Amino acid sequence: MKRPNDHRGATSKELVSPELVDRCKRGDEAAWSELVEATHREVFTVCLRILRDRDDAAEATQDAFLKAWRGLSRFRGDSMFTTWLYRVAVNAAISKQRSRARRRMHETDTDDEMLSQVPSAASVEAAAGARIEVAQLEKALGRLPEHYRTAVMLRDVYGMSIEEIAQETDISATAAKVRVHRGRKRLKEMMYPDEAGSPQRSSE
Q1: pTM of the model
Q2: Do residues 155 and 180 lie in contact, with contact meaning Cβ atoms separated by under 8 Å?
């Protein structure tokens, strides 16, 4: 996809340069448009992986960029800008998730195709391990209950601590730890059904 071509200060992991961020913080709307273009796909991916609905993810993406624009003064440069931006996106997606839950008590969307269309990420590959394809992990994540999926995504894909997950999802640290543990266990059971059963079970 098209990317701005003047991010000379950006590294292979950072999509935008410190200079571009500084211009945005000074209120340069042209620079902000450039930044949005450079990061839109990745922010949308964050939202889609949590929400599993393209319309909801698109709305959460808009909310994330609006919140980021309004909160630029809070970015002090202690971490990569995209790391900060992804946290804003996670927060927007979870907020959307909560409002969606209030509208419908039970999630009925079981379409795994949404997650299979999301580009793979190196962090996902690391979490999945060398034995499976990233696409298989995406589909397995899509079959997890929403609260387990969110916890596992935040911990293993976006690298949040248990305390950060608890804060983002408005639960206790103990509950967050339990969700991550149970979510990982269910993923293993789905991806390695032969290993999830009894060790004495013979395979055919």
Answers
A1: 0.61
A2: yes
